[in-house]
Structure formats: structure tokens, C-alpha cells
Amino acid sequence: MRLILTLVTVLIFFAANSVLARAGLVGGGISPAAFTAIRLVSGAVMLAIIVSFQGYRPWAAGSVEGGVTLFVYAAAFSFSYVAIPTGLGALILFGAVQITMFAGAVLKGQRPGPRRWIGSLFGLLGLAVLGAPGAESPPLWAAMAMAISGIAWGLYSLIGAKGGDPTRATAGNFLYAAPLALLAWLLLPGEAPEINGVVLALMSGAITSGLGYILWYGILPRLEASTAALAQLSVPIIALTGGMIFLAEAPDLRFAISALLILGGIAFGLMPRKKLP
Questions:
Q1: pLDDT tens, 236-276?
Q2: Which of 33, 43, 247, 256 is spaced 20 to 30 Å from 69 by Cα?
Q3: Dist. CA 193–CA 196, nearest whole Å
Q4: Where are the domains of the chain?
Q5: Locate the EamA domain: which residues (predicted)?
């Protein structure tokens, strides 16, 4: 039960990142490069404080590949959300995550059972309903950027599944990623960010990213890659709901059908198999 509650909390945090980014980049007066830098630096500071109080050096864990994939995910995520609505962005993001993590699971020798495959197919069908003709189509460059973000997040998650202390690993990854984000901001400065955008970036970095990723790295070793990928298919639905509540993005029949397919697929895929007597 604790694992399930932690997973639900993590998924809500992931969806909150989409809402915070979209709110900051569209109405918060902050550039994508600034949002990314403030998000990753604030997350690094929060995690460094936590790890230091535990008696460890914040930079001792983590990995270069973890830091690079985290930066690529966060940067592409921010730039794409300039032109993509909250729910549709999460749809593209976690569709790419789903493909990446399932491919990683198969390459690592895992063999997802029939329920996982069927559940994933239903989930992807639900995502296809959201992105079918008639939906608001984002610019191709923005959709491609979000897909790259999803691939990077999938790789970051596969790296985290190797185990190790989740707090120290996450802190180390943020410390590797933060200088890259500051360099990107230096090269693409844009206009000075407004206070609202800075606050939203700080919330995304210190809370829903920094603390959320500790929880995510903590449960990943206890989840198969296919299970983690399947569970993340719920994030677009949560993000869409957040967009409706906080950003006035109206729901429609497409949303209801997609939610039924995605959540039904997750429930079916994660349902325990009956043991033979």
C-alpha cells in the first residue's frame, strides 16, 4: 500500500510540473531557458541541503549520464511548453516515455506479461484518441521537442532503476544538470523573468521535481520498467485535469473517452495475475 501511495504522489507531482511550466511560460513572464535554469538550480539546492543534513556530500552520488538526460528532459520540456497545451504536452511526453521504457525493459531481458502489453495498448489507444485529427495541433518543432524530452526522461528513469540511495543519486544528478541549464540560460538569456514565473519555476524545481524525483528514484528499483512506464500513462489525464482547474482548459468528450481507455488500461495491466490452485 505504501508503494502505491508513493507512486500516486509521484504521478501527481509529474503532472504538476506540466501545469507549473505551462502557467509560467505562457502567463508568468519567464523564458524557457530561465525556467529550466531556475527549476534545476532550485532543485539542486534543495537536494544538496537535504543530503548535507544526512551527513553526505551532495556531489558524491549521481552520474554524468543521469545529469545529462535530466537536463535534456527539462530543457526540451520547457521550450516545447511555449507552444503546447498542458494535457497535449503531457500526452506526447509520456507517450515517448512509454515507448522508451518498454524498449529498455525488453533490451534488459524483461518479458512483460500479456496483461502489461494489453494494458499498454489500451493506454496508447487512449493517447491516440487525445491526439487524433480534430485536436489542437501543436507546431511540429514543439511536438518534436516534447518527444525528445520524453525519450530523455525514459532514459533517466532506466538509469534510476539501477538502484542506490535515491536522495543522494537525485542530488548528484541535479548538480550535474544545473550548470548545463545555467549555460543554456547564458546563451539564450531572453527578457528578465517576472516574479510570478520565478515562483512557479522554484515550485517546480524544489518541490515537484526535487522532492518528487527522490520518491521516483526510491520506488523505481521495486518496479519493473514496463510497470513504471504503464503507470506514467496516467500523467496526461492528471495534467489535463490540472489544466482544466488552474488554466481554464475546457474538458470535452475526447478527454472522457481517453481517460476511460488510459485508466482502464492501467488498471488491467497492473492487476495481479490469479494463481492456479
A1: 888 888 888 888 877 667 777 877 887 777 777 766 555 44
A2: 247
A3: 8
A4: 2-270
A5: 141-268
